[in-house]
Queue: 2 jobs
Job 1
Amino acid sequence: MKSPAIEIHDLTVSYRDKPVLWDIDATIPEGSLCAIVGPNGAGKSTLLSAILGTIHPASGWLKIFAQEVGKSQELIGFVPQRESVDWDFPVDVLDVVLMGTYSRLGWFRRPGKAQRDWAMECLEQVGMADLNKRQVGELSGGQQQRVFIARSLAQDARLILMDEPFAGVDAATEEAIRLVLLDLKKKGRTVVLVHHDLQTIENFFDHVLLLNLRLVAAGPTAETFTRENLLRTYGGRLTLLDEAAEAVRRIRTGRSRTGRDR
Amino acid sequence: MMISPNTLVILLGTTALGTCCGLVGALMLLKRRALLADAIAHSTLPGICIAFLLGGSRSLAVLGVGALLSALLSATLVSWLPRVTRIRKDAATACVLGIMFGAGIALIGIIQRSGLGGSAAGLDGLLLGRTAGMLRSEALLFGISAMMMSLIILALRKELLVSCFDPRFGLSAKIPARSIDFLQTSLLAATIVIALPAVGVVLTAALVVIPAAAGRFWTDRFDMLLAISALIGAASGLVGTLISSLHADLPAGPVIVLSATTLFIISLLLAPRRGWISRHLQQRSRLQDRQIRQFLDGILNSELEGSSGVARKRQPGITAAIDRRNRLVSSRNGWIKTDSQQIRLTQEGRKRAVRARKALQIWREWLTSEASIDRDLIDLDEQDIEKILPPDLIDTLQRSIDHRGTS
């Protein structure tokens, strides 16, 4: 058993007086590829913020690599939701990726050639190296997403959080992100991401966290990602249609955990 | 024209001042906090009045401390109110601005009535600003501030960039967002307090925001925006002071702000790429390209159907004027040959029409074969399409089109 990358105990987060996350208990083992799944407004992004330390829990605690979130000096790679960024901001692609190197530079020092080379290497990994001089607003949505992924790679952190990296991207970007995720997994990094597409979970992620204000279930995908748990997560919203689609898919893939379903 | 040493001092002072305002303004603009500048500037008034009542002097140092304290108080209120109440940030900013300025005006009234002397007139000067009486020491203070501010911004460039662009990321990277935030607000408050005597309570915010807004038209780079914004601020200070010193009855503040406004309007209209005129021209030429493409495509169509050309009258343009322009541009580029009745494609024109048609066809093929579409990529011209799709993919798509055509 590996030591946990993230330990969440009895976590409650509230916005004003209304709890948006309630009674969360979960551990995410180091080196896993973990998807946070749940309907809209289930508190998925809030949970990421709590792990990141931008929101303070009303009760309970969170530990990252056995250190409390507020006190931990551990770097966390972070890919925000694309909508949360000001794309008109006067900054080019390379500048954004270079931000990933800032925390290791320390105060007052500017990124130099070593940092630029490293940033270019990260851009190369997501297939964006030749666009490094573009202003970020001039990219397509998928390319913007890849820039953020490259920035989180440049951070070279043991733990990386991504808020819906697959939302609204094109096929090329989806493939690029998949490859990056697999590579990170090979290097033993822990990646936690908010994910929407139920179809792709089973064959790709080895850990899931089913969330709907409360924690419905968390654990290895094979045991946790079951129809019963999904029904409890989505309630009536997992429509008959989805169920039928899922049934068909299961028959077709034969619940194989090797191939990728494309 | 002779510039007296006194005027020279003032000129240097306001130029430095403009630089400070431009630098801080750029940071505020990028952080989307331009309104905070307005709130803080107006909020200095009660601080100044209270400092005058307690200190009993008109010395800038005493009044400045009062102004700085009430500026920081209002900045704190603006960030604190939305967190503990249901008031949103814009409403909180507007509330603080109104309340503090109202209190300040009331205090000025009290000071004037209490007969504390003609010095009340000096406080009046703070409303619209006055550069005429600027001392050498004050000008020196402005110069030193501008230099310090540039140094701070240079040294903390990367921290400021993250704090403006993506503060949540800053937290994940252990860059202390709160401290940087506080530093930015302090820089703003300090700049405003220094600018007050020259530009005045009412208009200082304008000198902070306008240069940055104007600078945004000229560049897409962070460092350049800071530099250009500082430059526009400096120019506004210089020109405004010059004009107001030539006409003694014009108050300096409004003239400086009007100079900045002039530069803003010039930027808005004339800046390359982002300026209004250039945008308009770009859009127009894009539209014309598209119309010409359709025009050539129409001729190609009928030539493929076997006719030897298109009658001059039958054309796909929306209006006769568009038709005429399409014809004119196409024949000027050597894409078509016209005789009295017929329009025919030249070799060159045929190549162009075929190329456009092929690119669009391939694009449609790609959009239908790849289920997930990137919405920003749907509406494109042939140049873009050929740039985006890799050559081997173009070949594959072309083959699948050809295949469908033959089967």
Job 2
Amino acid sequence: MNDLTTVVDWSRWQFALTAIYHWLFVPLTLGLSVLVAIMESLYLKTKSEKWLLATKFWMRLFGINFAIGVATGIILEFEFGTNWSNYSWFVGDIFGAPLAIEGILAFFMESTFVAVMFFGWNKVSPRFHLAATWLTAIGASISALWILVANAWMQYPVGMEFDPEQMRNVMDNFWDLFSGIAVNKFFHAVFSGWALAGVFVIGVSCWFLWKKRNQEFALLSIKSAAWFGLAGLLLTMYTGDGSAVEVTKHQPMKLAAMEGLYHGQEGQGFTAVAILNPDKDWDNDENEYIFEIAIPKMLSILGRHDANAFIPGITDIIEGRDIINGDTVNTISYAERIERGKLAQAALRNYDAAMEKGDTSAMQAAKDELAKNFQFFGYGYFDNVKEAIPPVGVTFWTFRIMCFLGGYFLLFFVVVLFLVYRTHLMEKATWIQWIAMLSVPLMWVCSEAGWAVAEVGRQPWTVQDLLPTKAAISDIPASSVIVTFWLFAVVFTVLLIAEVSIMCRQISKESQKNLSTSKA
Amino acid sequence: METLNKIWVFYRDGFREMTVGKTLWAIILIKLFIFFVVIKLLFFPNLLSRDYDNDQDRAEHVRKELTK
């Protein structure tokens, strides 16, 4: 087996495994912290003890999730330094600045106020306690902001200039990092956390109803979580629409892979249900789908907010064809991108040779040549245009899993809200209680699928157009990556089991108490 | 000094009164030990920091790697 391929593949699997596990904890922290802050605000406004008890119950579950999940993301940074050292150096301060801000500002903000949240009851004033709860929630979201800004830069690298002497990208405009991709990605991720927390709270509360324990508390929690989750989901859909427009503009290959689309057209339909043809390739005449049900013009509406707009497919993009406002436009074909990428790399080699000789004029000439073609630098690593196509099947299916589950949860919140406001319907209908409990893991599947679309769909790039995974990797033996892959698999699985078991034990224990009033 | 003392008492009492929190703190400490001592030190060195003394050499190494 080719060792480079093995190292790249195992490193990618390792990064994916770590990110997937990390993302099991993060969205619940993002969503539950806000929901708890809302509940505490309602307690302060109404002075009703039921809100206080609800706040304390959900705050404890938030604390368990926060404690188990905290620092799992740091492993990703370890992997950058060991497995992806070329990448780490190449991205320079562009990536480092947001992560440093995340570490200093947001993490310390969260850590400080989370202590007041848990230790401060009866020790600080109610208003100060509420402020600490909100600041913990805001700190968690700000923390996500910097991570997502860094991630968005990898999808759409802007605000920097490449310096061949330092061999890194140097930031020239910090505010450019807040691109449309970054803003949409941030809000999409945070609001999806709200929806996830809503489903979680409803699922746990339905377990209370099913067990016929603390029904008043459960109904109160369901009502707040259903409104909160519905708002989160609608906002997730809105920002998802914004993301689709940005992806169409800046990562058309990802959009084409999400649709399994090879030959685009004006008024392009959205493939609602389909079976992909495994024999289809960008340069053959096979049909794209074995079976397909499409919603007419929908992809054009989603991607370019115009029912008659052209959406390019994989073949169109590779061949450099697009239609803008009815005019056929020649974009830069992938063959030309590869050629220009190789020119950029040759210029970098010339720069290196000139630097060794101390020939400053040759260095400047090489630098100018590099700047002319740098935007296609990463294509120079490919010998065949096919290498620049993302895994279509995974991107296509994870996108559909995310969309279908998103639609399912919209219906779920509406049904739950309808039932919970009908006297006794929610308490009696065990079918909805079971659906709610079984929906909890489905919400995580939806959330993880969203990340898979974003990350698998941008392959083969670590930094879009500039650095493919095979160039970003360190020169390390595959065996060491394989060992740490399994080490992480064990450590994270143990953490997950610990989280689920501590949470279940806590829920069961708390359910024995009276959660409607402390006076009973 | 009084403020520092208040902060100390706040945290001390908070930790003392914890129930499930004690288990969680044990998990956090074990986890941090595994992450920063076992995993980071034994398996995840920062290769460029370990193998090169200055940024110029690191840049040189990456330039060779990316153009080989």
